[in-house]
Design brief:
235 residues; alpha+beta; Ubiquitin-like (UB roll); 16% strand; globular
Amino acid sequence: MTEKVKVRIDGEVIAATAGQTILEVARASNTYIPALCYMEGLSAVGACRLCMVEISGVGRLQPACTTPVQEGLAVVTSSPQLQAYRKIALELLFAERNHICAVCVSSGHCELQTLAQDHGVKYVRYPYSFPRLPIDVSHPRYVLDHNRCILCSRCVRACAEIEGAHVWDVAGRGTQSMLVSEMKRPWGEATSCTSCGKCVQACPTGAMAEKGWGVEEMTKHRTTVSRLTSMREGS
């Protein structure tokens, strides 16, 4: 029998199932918690840190996407501290690489751009890194622009967990981390790539896109991965 627990989210008592994460319970009860690396249907990794929440009795912020609920848990999902923290995290994402929204194929359909607007990020207070990053156009259908990658690893997990091809991974450390295909082969030379496009649909920014689309035309279908997961699990 599935164990039921009661948790308090922003003062409201909510019935949840043991094993669910704070983010899953919050979203099921229509409580908004921002996230970039989380995607329904994929495993949670807690990479972007935008879903951090305050938990009563815990001295530091915790990621909602990887923290399981337990009986009596009291969670705050929005506060001045959390808003400030999330704004800093978004600004650092913009400063780390070269996100030029005006010429991006995902402008108007980008999750990073939308979250920045929602959190009032009108400018970045930190120095831009302006790294010289490559663009991989070797694939006949898709393109990978490392300048727009936020290393959320959604493409890595979609390829591994849904398609089972294991084309993608993240190599390097810190600011030198890069998305790589098949042991650093150009994407077009990756023999395990099935060209299914699941990684492209999972990407929250314009880092992965389909060739031939202009600015604001590259609409991605975010429910593709969760729908495929549900079909696979027979639910």
